[in-house]
Amino acid sequence: GFERLCMVLQGVQSNYDTDIFTPIIKEIEVITNQTYGKDPANDIAMRVVADHIRAVAFSISDGQLPSNNGAGYVIRRILRRAVRYGFTFLGTQEPFLYKLVKVLVNIMGPAFPELKKQQNLIENVIREEEHSFLKTLDQGLVLLDDMIAKTKGKEIDGKKAFELYDTFGFPIDLTSLILSERGYTLDEKEFEKAMEQQKTRSRSASEVAKDDWVVLQQSGQQEFIGYDQLEARVDLVKYRKVSTKKEGTQFQLVFNKTPFYPEGGGQVGDKGYLEVPNGDVVYILDTKKENNEIVHYSKNLPKHLNETLTAVVDAGLRGRTASNHSATHLLHQALRQILGSHVEQKGSAVHSDHFRFDFSHFAKLTEEEIGKVEQFVNARIGEQIPLEEKRNTPVKKALEEGALALFGEKYGDKVRSIRFGESIELCGGTHVQNTADIWHFKIISEGAIAAGVRRIEAITSDAVRDFYEEKNKLLDRIKSRLKSSGDPVKAIESLQEENSKMKKEIESLLKEKARNIKSEFKGSLEQVNGVKFLAKEVDLDAAAMKDLAFEMGQEQDDLFLLFASKQQGKALLSCYISKGLVEKKGLNAGQVVRELGKYIKGGGGGQPFFATAGGKDPAGIPEALEKARSFIS
Predict the structure, then answer these.
(1) DSSP string, 222-249
(2) How far apart are CA 589 and CA 83, in angstroms?
């Protein structure tokens, strides 16, 4: 409606002629060197790109990143459709959509300040998505072309299309669109059949057989008391038997009340045990929430089902899990302060021995940034900040007080907020009473998990002590191996320097050997159909074979060389073809090594004038050398 209103007010014939889209289309013209209005197919492509970049940019600014499921997958499909139109109709081989974001921000930023605020994130997410999909697109189009070439008739096998989708990640809607443009149809029934077969395989692997519930007593609303106590007298309300391939037979138990925290909000469920009046113990292996009920998993049932039981949470596991959960809040605060307010939590997994935290950010964290984050969190731990917990607070009031709400998370009318100093978040998980209880915080890894999404894995409490103890043991082993009681870094640097010298000496010897071989091989060249041909096994590594080939190529024209070598139980092939032969006879070294690679049970590739292959079967070298002649015969 907004675009149509602009069209009427501005007196133009199309939404895309309004000042919402024309600046974007002009920028597309500049980037692609295409002119809008000359070719109908190109015009459609430009309009698709202009429309889609706007939709994607606004979605990312609102916090929805591209992903493989839910709303994120819709965004990814929209973005990929724009990439494909640019690739097919506008000749774009490199990421270009992200360059349009600045134009969009100039147009709409004044009215939508969050667009300008998140510009860097939007550009980086789109660029990464483009880069990733262009690789898939390039490979997928080659495979799709091959599929079409091998098809008799105008209908493409659905199983083959599913393989393209399942193995190579090529979107099926894109396959259908390309086939339609080329006058082909897709056997959708076969595709759906292949898809259903895969789902069936997946379901059978994780299938759960459930008996009916055995109800022992009618009970009202189940009460969770685990924020305040780790032990309680409980009555068993109902139970049932469940079976899975992974866990075997277990029982699900529901009590009238429970101190066990169920898996949720990224935090694992509690473990513990039930004390039975006769002295028996029933171990609780996990706790989950199902249909708004807290369900406890055990391998066996209490002998007397109607007796009151004592439910005891494993305090050690709960304490370490709470330590890690509180650390995620401090980490979130640290990242927003150090990296910027664009950082938003995108997921978490809180266990007793470690936790991971996913967040929106467009670049790898530097060592300096990681150090600052660790210092920030450990400083908050050192300040011994007490927990301020508020329960059953109206969600509006909690947000007004500054609580962070996670994008995409559903909250009720009443919420629980967790505050440690300046860090305040809506959260239903378990937490320490004071940041001092966390003891220490350490990041053990940081990396990308999706476009614009990073993941930090970290540890706290006892796990940090164990981490440093293991590092000290490793350091002692290194010192022992180095036979050095002093600075191991200096000892390693000395070894590296010595190793570098030896490598240079070996390279020098191999080059000398290659020069000697070159003199010998000059007299071994055969004339075959106007080509100087040589196929030989040599005792050289890959670098030396390349040097030998290029040195001979500088001295000889019309040269076709194939060298083979055995190195560390593997086979290597190097093929050199003079540029003149590549142009005159259409020979291609990359094609040669791809064909010959099968004899050494491997593969390879490269440029038309030089290519290499590697394989695991040196026994195939003689046959590969023999077959080389066939390319010029």
Answers:
(1) -EE-TTT-SEEEE-EEEEEEEEETTTEE
(2) 32
One-letter-per-residue 3-state SS of 361-430? CCCCCCHHHHHHHHHHHHHHHHCCCECEEEEEEEHHHHHHCCCECCCCCCCCCEEEEEEECCEEEECCCC
Q: Are the CB atoms for 313 and 322 separated by under 8 Å? A: no
pLDDT of residue 131: 87
Q: How far apart are CA 119 and CA 263, in angstroms?
A: 36
d(CA 592, CA 606) in angstroms, rounded, equals 10
List the beta bridge partners of residue 567: 570
Three-class SS of residue 455?
strand
- Asked if 373 and 365 count as a contact pair (C-beta separation under 8 A), the reply is yes
Bridge-based pairing of strands 345-350 and 236-244 is unpaired
| Per-residue confidence (pLDDT) for residue 106, from 0 to 100 | 94
Q: Which of 313, 344, 359 is the last residue of a domain?
A: 313
568 is a domain residue = yes
Task: Compute, in degrees rounded to 10, the torsion defined by CA atoms 516, 517, 523, 524.
Answer: 170
- Summarised one tens digit per residue, pLDDT across range 82-128 is 998 898 888 888 999 999 999 999 999 999 988 988 898 899 899 98
pLDDT of residue 564: 96
Residue 206 has a pLDDT of: 60
CA–CA gap between residue 137 and residue 86 (Å, rounded):
12
Sign for the CA dihedral angle at 173, 176, 180, 181 comes to: positive
Tally of domains in the chain: 4
Using one digit for the tens of pLDDT, what is the confidence trace for 3-42? 788 888 878 778 888 888 899 999 999 999 999 988 998 9
Q: Residue 165: in which H helix or E strand, if any?
A: helix 158-168
| pLDDT less than 50: residues of the chain | none
Six-digit token string for 56: 């994607």
- Give the span between the Cα atoms of 360 and 453, in whole angstroms: 5
pLDDT at 82: 92
Q: Which tokens hold the place of 255?
A: 């009590």
What's the CATH code of the domain at 288? Answer: 2.40.30.130
Task: Give me 369's structure tokens.
Answer: 């940034």
The residue out of 467, 487, 522 marking a domain boundary is 467
H/E element holding 491? helix 488-522
Q: Going edge to edge, which strands form the sheet with 610-615?
A: 526-528, 531-537, 559-567, 570-577, 610-615, 602-606
**Rounded Cα–Cα distance for residues 103 and 536 (Å):** 59
Half-sphere exposure of 501 (CA within 13 A, CB side): 5
Do 273 and 346 fall within a single domain? no
Cα–Cα distance list, 1 to 113, 201, 626 (Å)? 22, 46, 71
Residue 523 corresponds to which tokens in the numbers above?
Answer: 């007299």
Question: What is the structure's pLDDT at 64?
Answer: 85
Choose among 468, 476, 471: nearest CA to 440: 468
Round to whole Å and give the CA distance between 506 and 524: 26
Residue 355: predicted pLDDT:
98
Domain match, 27 and 138 both? yes
DSSP state of 289: E
The verdict on 218 and 244 lying in the same domain is: yes
